[in-house]
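[09:14] KT: can someone run the structure on this one? pasting the chain below
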Amino acid sequence: MNTTLILIFAIVAALFAIRKAIHIVFRAPRLIEQGSPADFGISYQDITIPTKRGKQLFAWWLPATTPDKVVAPTIILMHGWGSNAELMLPLAVPLHRAGMNVLLLDARNHGRSDDDNFSSMPRFAEDVAEAINWIKHQGDLQNNQLVLLGHSVGAAAVLLEASRRDDVAAVISLATFAHPEWMMRRYLGRFPLPKLFIKGVLHYVERVIGYRYEAIAPMHTTCLVKCPVLLVHGTADKTIPMSDALAIRDQCNKNSIELLLIEGADHDSIDKIEEHAKELVLFLKRVNILAQE
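[09:31] RB: done, structure tokens below
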């Protein structure tokens, strides 16, 4: 075997190793739910929802406790990367108590949902879309008051899905990034990697997920959302800085976008946001999703 052939084999082997390493680095950790809505005294149902590629999603359905004659609005909650439905319960509880039907969803490769070959923000959005379809097929359940709420990657996903449709009444985004390339550069910047290598990784991920970053960036998709949007962001978020939320608001420059900054909240501080649940409820009242008292 000559030197040139050996060099070619070595390069091919290195490329395969790099590809595998990229998939490992960006693989979402799986956390299985240990508790349930029953821990909060809420009646619920375990359900499964079919999604793309023949996969099944696990979810909790928390029907509203309002009388049958009162049509309750419905909210879908989508967690962030490596999270699950249980970690969104602290937000689900006050929204359910405010009179909403609540659907808590596990994305593919998360919680108790099926495995798939990779996770991505557009796939989170696909799972949200299938959750909406499930709600629309629930008999007499009226869904003209449908709200989407997401955290981090889940927030970017609900903004992406809402930008594609006109049957969403409001969106609440918690700690979304403004642009996926910015987020990935921040993450990769923590490692001593050559700039050319980082550029290659960014291009490879773009090819794998099947979307250009520009097409799915919340700083662009949010501007296309037809319904009111509440951007919520922690002032102490070290994963996705508060400047991303400001960039989205300034890019869109729409009166239908509100910004709520949570003082001292870091990226995963759902407990801090929970303290401001009343402000989320007030937003839903202002946009006529929930009845004014």
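[09:33] KT: thanks! The mean pLDDT is 88.
[09:34] RB: yep, looked fine to me
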